[in-house]
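ingest -> validate -> predict -> emit
validate: passed (alphabet ok, no gaps, 531 aa)
predict: started
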Amino acid sequence: MSVTVADLMKLPSLKQATVLGGHNGLSKTVASISVLESTNPDQLVDGLFPRDEFFGSEIVITGFLNITHDVERQCANIRKLAEGGEVGLILFYVGVYMPDVNQRLIDLADEMDFVLICMPRGEKSLRYGEVINDVMERIYRDRAGKESIVADILARMSNLPQHLQSVNTVLKMLSDRITATVALVEGSGEILNLVTWPRNIEPVVKEGLKGMKNLSEEEEQGNCLFLENSRQYSLLVAAENDRQLRLLIIKEGDGLTDAELDQSADVVRISMNIWSRQHGEIAIHELVRAIIQDEPMKMRRLADIFRIDVASIQEMWIIREKAGDTRSGSSKHIPEIRSMLDGQSSTVMVDVYEENILVFLSSLGSLRAADQLSEELVTSMEKNGADVTLVRCPGLKNTTDVRQAYLSHDSYLEDTVRIYPTKRIFTLSEIQFAEECRRRIQLGEHATTQYMEQLMDLQKNNEELSVAETLGVYLLDTGCSVTKTASILYLHVNTVKYRIGRISDIIGYRPDKMPENFSLFLAVALYRLLK
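emit:
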């Protein structure tokens, strides 16, 4: 997990420090630490921190040594630091040089969720270096023990002011995280965003990139031609129509691992989807993708950014057009689905993933309400010309459950439709039942014989009846309803009653009696699959 301000407060050098204000910012991620003292406070505010510039989720050490009595400028500095994306300020030498911490600073820290920390008052022996060493060691140890660049950067982005949430900010974070130059470029060579490491080599990099006329034809990695002892990587992050966007990374010294490259491309792609296009649907698609791919850290960070209460989601619906529509075709149904579900659930998330429409919902109040709503939704879509199946997956506790449910649906929906040919709305349990049937078939003939023999024995004793057909409709299609079975088979109700009665006499129990009838369920389901 990322290092937070709260984690830093447990370090030896900060154990005796006191949090004066900005307690709501204790959960913010800290990427680095810096010291800021200036002979000209106005330069600190206006020169080093230009408006709308991000500076890296740092925590700052200062003693306000040049403005120990100027509360107005102290407040101006805190405001500018917070607006620049810094997470907090550690005050040294209070009671030594700075008389005390004015209440205005504390109130401002609370207002901006900017953590204001005061080192022990009246202590002349305090040293900046002790805190710096402790903090950086904690950060490096955390980075060495985890591999998720994506989760780390998304965590930091979720805590930034909205005006700093941009692709350029992500690139700055990424550059600091992997200590490399990063650029977002078009295939033609046009630079869209550039962040160099270190920052003062920007003119050299710009000049070097001018010689790379067609980046789409560049090798994916190789030696950098204009920076000594550096590796260069070219990663495709977006391709729309004839336009390619690539992430160019230049790393001096040791190169980057495949995992670091993959995650670097992933976080840039996500940032482009969310903060470049500003399409809410695309942003939600990233969250859905994180849920389905069982990436809980990424999911939580994205949920923080989009202000979505993922913990309230209790149910997933998977809707698929039988014709296997494309993503763009399926997307046209999203407004209709949203309009029907809005107000029915406190959380409603709808998106297209692969060829499926996914609906994530919180509690619908009751099973009856869920059944009724899913029926109305499918009926409405059919009236609009869509031939669909809907699978309800309730009781999903985490992203692992969601992913497993999705994979089961993907693998066994076709078998489920064969087992339940008259249905269009299914449950996850029915998908899992189809999965169990397919597993038994894959085990070989001996695994299905004991079940299929039951149907053959019934047939021998009742040759005029289509036992498998009658039992199949009775058990699988109608929920053991004699009336519905008669309607589907175009038979008189008494004929169906007679057949069910004869079957009961032969097997020694009623076909609708659990748990005895489980083997019959398997038998007729296997019959339909094998048929």
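The two ends are 53 Å apart (CA to CA).
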